[in-house]
Amino acid sequence: MSGYKRLTIDDIAELAGVSRTTASMVLNGHAERYRISRATVERVEKVASEQHFNPSQSARSLRSRRSNSVGLVIPDLTNSAHAALAQAMEELCRQRDYQMLLVTSDEDPRREAEVMAHLAARQVDAMIVVPCTHEAKSYQKWVRRLPLVFVDRRVDGSGIPSVVTDGCASVERLVGDALEQGVSEVVFFGGQAELSPSRDRLQGYRQALALHGVEEKPGWVCHRDYLRRSGFELMQQWRQQHHRLPQALFTASVSLLEGALAFLNQHCGLANAPLRLLTFDDHSLLDCLPLRVDAIVQDSREMAARSLELALALLEGQALAEPEFLVPASLHRRWPA
């Protein structure tokens, strides 16, 4: 048996010298309706504050059929873009008096299904998910149970609202900058090819090549996943096949960039790496590197705000004017124009 004692409303009533009913009415905001004196209210509230006591969330949930909690599913907390999204989401939920419950899928569809079931069992009011599969049918059962919104990635044909960065336009601008400055070879390292961010970023890359009259060569586009080790392995593989480094490299996530940088640091030193680097997602540590990296900056707070807004609108039964929302991105240019 546990030696811990859970504080109850009976304990608060005893410490305040009032009945259980009076303590309950005060702490649940019904003191004025039942004409409980101001002195009694202050005494009960003082005791509750000193004991860090709040009325049971479970009891309130049963009465209101709301848990005032939102579930967030992200693939990987070590991905700085998803960590920034989670940080922004937690703050926005707190401002609306919601608790955010965070779980990770590890980019594994089976794990994702398990953690979504866990959140549903916790009676979250809504779920916001960075999906790790493009299979629409994987998410349909949840739509019938609670509000579901995708963020950062969409699943085409699912009918589920989504909030994503305008990856196509931002990549076109970033790669286009390098081509305008004389670069003639840009290699693309991407994540899972079937996911919407991979498709959008690849489309932007190819549009930039076409606009600047550059023909894509075999081996320029390489896909694996968005994990750090894949950036290392793709860089290793490219060098083994071509016996040199590419003139320029675009990585479709900062996690892939981390892996590529690890390879460069291990095999030729970052200060001596003869290539231009471009990446989707930015990080302040990129300012500290001995080589420059131009980056696309996602607006994590706007993505969090829009997806939470959609989820709470669905919770209230509102029709969505914009079921799919594109959030503009900005560029952080470290190379001189």
TrEMBL record:
CDD domains: HTH_LacI. InterPro entries: HTH_LacI, Lambda_DNA-bd_dom_sf, Peripla_BP/Lac1_sug-bd_dom, Peripla_BP_I. One of its GO terms (molecular function) is DNA binding. Residues 7-64 form the HTH lacI-type domain. Keywords: DNA-binding, Repressor, Transcription, Transcription regulation. PROSITE patterns: HTH_LACI_1, HTH_LACI_2. This is LacI family DNA-binding transcriptional regulator. It comes from Chromobacterium haemolyticum. The lineage of its organism: Bacteria, Pseudomonadati, Pseudomonadota, Betaproteobacteria, Neisseriales.
